[in-house]
Amino acid sequence: MYERDVKDYNVREQGVRDQEVREQDLRKKYAREQRIRQQTLKRARFDEKATLPVLGFVPINKPILTASYEVAYLIAKQGKPLTIGETLVKPDVLKMANIMLGEETKVKLSQIPLSNDTICDRIEDMSKGILAQVVADLISSPAKFNIKLDETTDVSNLSQVIVLVRYVKDDVINEDFLFCKSLTTTTKAAEVKKPVDNFFKDNSLSWDMVPAVCSDRVPVTQGRKSGFGAVVKADAPHIIITHCILHRHALATTTLPPKLAEVLKIVDCVNYMQSSALRHRIFSELCKEMGLEFDVLLYHSNIRWLSRGQLLNGVFAVRLELALFLQEHQHCHADCFKNSEFIVILVHLADIFAAVNHLNHKMQGGGFDIIETEENLKAFQKKLPLWKRRTEINNFADFPLLDECVRSKMYLESQTFLYPRN
Q1: Beta strands of 233-278 (E only): which ranges?
Q2: CA 37 → CA 27, 33, 41, distances in Å?
Q3: How far is CA 367 from CA 154, 214, 245, 315, in A?
Q4: What's the Cα-to-Cα distance from 368 to each of 102, 260, 362, 375, rounded to whole Å?
Q5: What residue ranges in 75-171 does DSSP mark as E strands?
Q6: CB 122, CB 72: distance < 8 Å
Q7: Residue 158: enclosing H or E segment and its boundaries?
């Protein structure tokens, strides 16, 4: 009897609990449906009258939405902080509208959402849209696409993999940025390849669609057995690994004759001066007292190898002041500027690097194909024998700084050392 009563009690309790669970589920379902119904009605009212601009909701196909995206695009293009929209752009626009067009226009413009979160969402939406468009173009391209890969480290010591893509669309060769991923651990070739594999997998791409990969020959990419090229070829043997043609020009400076390479050490003098705020101020004041047109030489690093010619031009322009400054600080290169041969090599290298810099600029940017690039490179190569022949007969017209230096008759005794006759 007692056991039967306990069982009946348990059954009743279980039934009560089941009923409470069902009622709770029904209440949740009703609340959810009610919330959705209210949001739908609110959204319908907003689409009709735009009554919620302060919350950042903007109806589709409204000028407010377009204006918000346009401002976000400009902020992203200029690389400005996302908060500039609500802290600078919008207040300035409202003030100008109030002054020029009146209070009514100001009220309309104040409805444009430019908050930090809104601008961030707009930029993210545009980024996703552009990426989806580029991926779609890659998939539908009539030819395979090539990628350019670079592993680099930023100022915060964060290693990143940057991938650019070159493909055909509507019979036109296009170049686009594909993605940039951070390397959280090591920078080995396998770790560099992993984000590329993940990106291909997420976007329905494959290595079979890539005939060639170009890199800048950093250590992580150039190993024959464990480099990026070797790791890629293990999965896709058909891929051709090439070396960036522009980066080869930077490597060429490491094979200069000793006499020319010695002059390039003048870069150390500039960095010695710029590495100290006190020395920088002293040199700047010295240049002002001497009445020079400019009083600053920019700090130079190896990554700025394209601008080395401009640096040498600046050194030549302030050579007297720089020599005086180095003598006062007892620098080891202070006496170099007293050597006429050193000055001639300096201006000659400045002209050479300027010519190489001009060539590199002609081979960069969009719209260039391998045919046009090869023509520019071969044209430059054909100029070299002509320059040498002219120099051997003391004709320096192809080198403006050197020609000016020689014409001034300051260093005539050193003008034949560059290309001595046999």
Answers
A1: 240-243
A2: 15, 6, 6
A3: 28, 18, 17, 35
A4: 50, 33, 9, 11
A5: 146-153, 159-169
A6: yes
A7: none
101-105, 301-305, 359-363, range with the lowest pLDDT = 301-305
CA 205 to chain centre: 24
Asked if residue 295 lies in contact with residue 287, where contact means CB atoms within 8 angstroms, the answer is yes
| Top-confidence residue, 305 or 70 | 70
* C-alpha span between 113 and 119 (Å, rounded): 8
Q: What stretch of H or E contains 172?
A: strand 172-183
No. of helices (H) and no. of strands (E), the chain: 18, 5
| Residue 255 structure tokens | 């094979």
At 344, list the tokens.
Answer: 């001639």
Task: Take residue 358 and report the two structure tokens written for it.
Answer: 């001009």
Separation of alpha carbons 49 and 66, rounded Å: 17
398: Cβ contacts below 8 Å, ≥ 6 apart: 351, 383, 386, 387, 390, 391
Q: How many other β-carbons are positioned within 10 Å of the β-carbon of residue 83?
A: 14
Rounded to two decimals, the pTM is 0.63
What tokens does 7 get?
């069982």
Do the beta carbons of residue 150 and residue 179 sit within 8 Å?
no
Residues, the chain: 422
